[in-house]
Design goal:
By secondary structure, the protein is of the alpha/beta class. It has 7 helices and 18 strands. The radius of gyration is 22 Å and the shape is elongated. Bound molecules: iron/sulfur cluster (2 copies).
Length: about 350
């Protein structure tokens, strides 16, 4: 490897992890190409709403627009509508380049690469697959992602039309901590996201009745206490227990049975918002076959352990963001910084050793 050549990196996935990595690598003099299978950039976060009340709720969603603005001024190349087809390796199995293919035309292109970051993110759990909560059958049951649309489009009042003081319930751990669907892990982000959403509703609509059903609340971090205090101060009902089946009740209401102190408690709501968990991106299986990076028991990329956890078993291939396990935006941004630091360290070592 010539020591005076500019180093290059290819990033697969243009969600917030891939974009943050692209920005940092480019700022450190690396030639960066971002490959994105879909036609747009930003991933899930591009569709999430700002949950600020009179104060910021520190969800980090707006980091995305800052990163995109910085990338607009950078030499980073974007190839949307392209996918990774194969990788090229050189001496000692070290990555030397990638082959990418355009979805529609099937055009092929070869890109030199000293480093490859896999940052394909996650997919959200589809609650209709379990058939327990009435999602896709009962009109009033929506996911947290669908609730975000009401906030992003500034139409919270339309969440429950023609209903004074509606009753709203959040169900936590939908598609997470659930062995029956192979997801016996915590998705890390949904307690905070559910609480922020409940706080946003109750702040904008103080006369609405808001409950949040949980197993236990995973809200570690600097702002955890603030979130919980705000929720309690606003009168949000925090109910420990996971409701079972949802059923139609008195016309267009939703009946729920939950367990409290060993007793079944019946209740009714106007809207139920399911805090759906993170699942591995199904594309991970193809990319595992192409790159040699293994998958863990859940289907997330298998990274190395300890201080090396953004490196993989394959030389020159790294992971960033929720494709290696569920995480919130703050942790995703930290993982992008760490993966970038690992790449810069490795590139520097190769320069010195070349
Ligand atoms: S961090 Fe979240 S809540 Fe705060 S301003 Fe940004 S998007 Fe809004
Ligand atoms: S973050 Fe909360 S809602 Fe999400 S899986 Fe973990 S415990 Fe359940």
């Amino acid at each position: 490897m010539p020591s005076n050549s500019k180093k290059s990196a290819v990033i697969v996935g243009a969600g917030i992890a891939g974009l943050a990595s692209a920005r940092l690598l480019s700022e450190n003099g690396v030639d960066v190409t971002v490959i994105e299978k879909s036609s747009g950039i930003g991933g899930h976060v591009a569709n999430w709403g700002c949950m600020a009340t009179s104060e910021c709720q520190v969800c980090h969603c707006c980091s995305l627009s800052d990163i995109i603005a910085a990338l607009d001024e950078s030499p980073v190349r974007f190839m949307t509508g392209w996918q990774l087809e194969s990788i090229n390796t050189g001496v000692g199995g070290q990555l030397s380049g990638v082959i990418v293919v355009e979805n529609e035309s099937r055009n092929i292109r070869e890109i030199p690469a000293d480093a490859l970051i896999l940052s394909i993110g996650f997919e959200t759990f589809d609650p209709s697959s379990k058939g327990l909560w009435g999602y896709g059958v009962l009109d009033g049951v929506i996911t947290l992602a669908e609730f975000d649309d009401f906030i992003r489009e500034d139409r919270l009042s339309e969440l429950v039309p023609d209903q004074d003081a509606p009753r709203i319930a959040f169900f936590q751990c939908v598609g997470s901590r659930d062995k029956s669907i192979g997801a016996n892990y915590c998705s890390q982000y949904c307690c905070k996201a559910g609480l922020r959403s409940a706080i946003r509703i109750k702040t904008d609509k103080p006369d609405w009745d808001v409950s949040l059903f949980y197993i236990d609340l995973q809200v570690a971090g600097k702002y955890a206490t603030t979130l919980l205090d705000n929720a309690k101060d606003l009168g949000i009902h925090l109910v420990q227990g996971v409701p079972g089946e949802v059923f139609p009740y008195q016309g267009n209401k939703l009946g729920v049975v939950s367990e409290k102190n060993g007793l079944n408690v019946r209740d009714q709501f106007d809207r139920i918002i399911l805090s759906v968990g993170q699942r591995p991106n199904p594309t991970a299986a193809d990319l595992s076959r192409i790159t040699g990076v293994g998958l863990d028991n859940f289907g997330f990329f298998r990274n190395l352990e300890g201080l090396d956890r953004f490196r993989t078993s394959e030389k020159g291939i790294y992971v960033a963001g929720a494709c290696s396990g569920p995480m919130d935006i703050e942790t995703t941004l930290t993982s992008a910084e760490a993966a970038t630091a690992d790449i810069l360290e490795d590139l520097s070592n190769w320069r010195e050793g070349s």
